[in-house]
Amino acid sequence: MNESQSVILIDDETDLLKALRRLLKAEGFQVACHTSAAEFLAAARPPSPGCIVLDESMPGMTGLDLQRELVAEGSTLAIVFLTARGDIPMSVRAMKAGAVDFLTKPVKDKDLISSIRMGLKKSADLELNKNEVDLLRGRFETLTDREREVLKFVTQGLPNKQIAASLGLVEQTIKVHRSRVMTKMRAESLAQLVVVAERLGITSQES
Amino acid sequence: MNESQSVILIDDETDLLKALRRLLKAEGFQVACHTSAAEFLAAARPPSPGCIVLDESMPGMTGLDLQRELVAEGSTLAIVFLTARGDIPMSVRAMKAGAVDFLTKPVKDKDLISSIRMGLKKSADLELNKNEVDLLRGRFETLTDREREVLKFVTQGLPNKQIAASLGLVEQTIKVHRSRVMTKMRAESLAQLVVVAERLGITSQES
DNA sequence: AAGTCTATTATACCTTGGTCAAACGGGCTA
DNA sequence: TAGCCCGTTTGACCAAGGTATAATAGACTT
Prior knowledge:
Chain A is an alpha/beta fold. The first copy, chain A, is built from 9 helices and 5 strands, in the order βαβαβαβαβααααα. The A-B interface holds A 86-89, 91-92, 95-96, 101-102, 104, 154-159, 188-192, 194-195, 198 and B 86-89, 91-92, 95-96, 101-102, 104, 154-159, 188-192, 194-195, 198.
């Protein structure tokens, strides 16, 4: 299970990187190091359940910039900030953007490790959830327009007869669409279909 | 709609309280002032969609203490910290505990007001959600043990026949319970019942 | 002891959901 | 153009859900 113990260190101070790497490896983590945000982005994406330990003040892209970038692309990596020249507004911004923690140098080994474990837990949870949703979305995309329409009505609890009336069709037609929806979404019951629809945020909007 | 614009100022510096009160009243907020956390707790609970502007460093109970207290009792009040002697760990703790913002004195009027508006929005959302869940929980509590059991199975998508078998009963019995559940929970369809069960976190645990 | 609440079962009937088989039409390919 | 796939539609038939009424029985209250 070492795959789920992946830590990415990003800091422009190479001495610190070395020291932290040794510490974290000794703790049993998989460790990757980068000396800038750009270098990290250029590298192949790390195994996704993982935690980034990030310095805020770096030449080029700052830690907050990188965080914004990762959030924007829906990354499931957790971020622990570790910085020397931080201030309150900076930490608040980081936390608002979803950072797991915002630590200041020098940091106690215990604190850093504790935060990293928290981050790994969070990342694993996010990853798990994302995978599930992706799977469901994939199935949803195999539905035809009609089927999506019927899915929407069905998960709102409308009976077939009413759905048919709304769409100007006969009840039997709805039944067939409904059946296909169940098959394609791999739902074994209406109850399951409803929770799936909830997770996909299917309400009424969009085309 | 001024009820939903309620701000509670808690700070031991009375001069600041006065100044902020004037500012916020001019902005159209309902303002209440307290000079300590204890005084606030002793007072009647303010209208619940509201935002607390809280100083961290006060004699007696600190801001973080009060925040912990409010979180523990499930308050829907939002909290904006406003403090002079703050540091990063303090701000991080506050944000982790769900503060809307952590501002430092002196603060720009614009920033404070912006945070307060954010807090009011958040509080209103929490309040709305809490009211809904409370309503549903109230209905759930009118169910008998058997009915809750049946509710659990039904919202998992099991057909009556199987539920009956699981409980060593006849299908008709389940139908009766099921019908009562629908009535008591005021659900008009299985779909609605399922989402209600989701919001109540009904899965399988507890007695 | 009478009354209330809950749980259980039964009968009967109606409504709704689910599956099977099949027809129709548009668009694409050989 | 003929054949084919896909999406859509429909009818016939069977299974499951929902309602109404009623009866029995235990637990608890007054």
